[in-house]
Amino acid sequence: MSFKKNFVWGAATASYQIEGAASKDGKGPNIWDAYCEIPGNIKDGNSGDIACDHYHRYKEDAALMSQIGLKAYRFSLSWSRILPEGTGTINSKGLDFYDNLVDALLEKGIAPYATLFHWDLPQALQLRGGWLNADIPEWFAEYTQIVAERLSDRIKYWFTLNEPQCFIGHGLLNGTKAPGLKLELSDVLLATHHSLLAHGRAVQAIRAADASAKIGAAPTGSVAFPKSETEADINAAYQATFSVPGEGDLNPGGKNAWLISDEATWNIAWYADPIFLGKYPEEGLAAFGDKVPRYTDADMAIISQPLDFCGINLYSGWQVEASTEGNRWEEVPMPQGDRLTAFKWPVTPEILYWGSRFFYERYNKPIYITENGMSAHDWVDLDGAVRDHQRIDFVRRYLREFRRAAGEGIPVEGYFLWSLMDNFEWAEGYRERFGIIHVDYETQERRLKESAKWYATVIAENGENL
């Protein structure tokens, strides 16, 4: 069995990473605009001020999507482009941009999948406390209502928040992403709770605009996969995947070394369990203790609004086996000299099978892989081609594992390759290239890489050629 006939083949981007036009046509500043102004935050002193200039080139980019044969495009909307102050007066030109983008996609037969928030909080709201302000769920609901009322006649698929593990954990705990704060864990958990409430209020706003809308979220995390397919190792991998270590704690089987040092917030269950199960995980409640913010049953009812699917952003994972020493699992070190991407992330294709399986077992929702891909050392050859064969091999390996999940009856709905085009890679500036379209940042010339041409054949054959 392969992918179903209506399987959604797509690619993904994010507003700040590609749009540029940072202060064009009334757009207000966001936290990344502010963060990039501080010397030392971004490699080479770069920013998203111009990026891929998608704001002006969206029609050209839609044509390239059509050339590849994409069935869907997952993009995010810039909150401060639509509401420069985060609330209040609407910037009509900003909303018009997304209106025109959606029309351009539909003209090419490409389904728009919109993400409401991909890290670029309006700076005006950050100055009012950002995710620590108890009013932010209502601010997010106001923004969502404006967007949904304008676009839900044509956008039928929505994601609320992209990777809270990053914009909360990296932005507020270890300070490696905007706004670059290092807060106490109690404040970080409060901000997390507010983000979950914002998700729920956004779901309500979309449903009010279009009762037929399909809605999900897009968390990330590190999926563990078993060393062997014994029941003991599979159970160990499941437990490791959804574990919630406490402050400064490590998982019981040793440190997953490639992860950054915010173990307390880099997990899946603390963010996904409230959304899909209506409760915080017991392990997390025990680990965080009195640092967990006070919350009510009414809060959980808002957070756990019914969803239609589960998105997962997956790149790399880690291998475990059942412990023989009383722990729940032991990490299995990767072989020395094993495969690494240009970003030095391990290549672990098994996670697309085990991640889909574990998420479906736990949350019982259809699965989208909302991001998956790799940074590679891509450049234009002398003959003008961009031969990114490692990316082709990477994606093929991962998709084979995803196809295994489909073959076992797990309801996998679609796959969004990260990324459609090379773009601003946050603190790394323009040093990392994730795209299947090469972008010359000096001229804005686009070139289809070999991976884009290969992906076109995968789409045309619905994955039969993997």
Structural description of this entry:
This protein starts with 7 loop residues before the first strand and ends in a 6-residue tail after the last helix. 53% of the residues are buried. The strands form three sheets. It has an eight-stranded parallel beta sheet with strand order 5-4-3-2-1-11-10-7. Strands 6-8-9 form a three-stranded mixed beta sheet. The longest helix has 25 residues. The chain has one domain: TIM Barrel. With 466 residues, it is α/β, with parallel strands linked by helices. Helix 8 runs antiparallel to helix 9 and helix 14 runs parallel beside helix 15. Strand 8 and strand 9 form a beta hairpin.
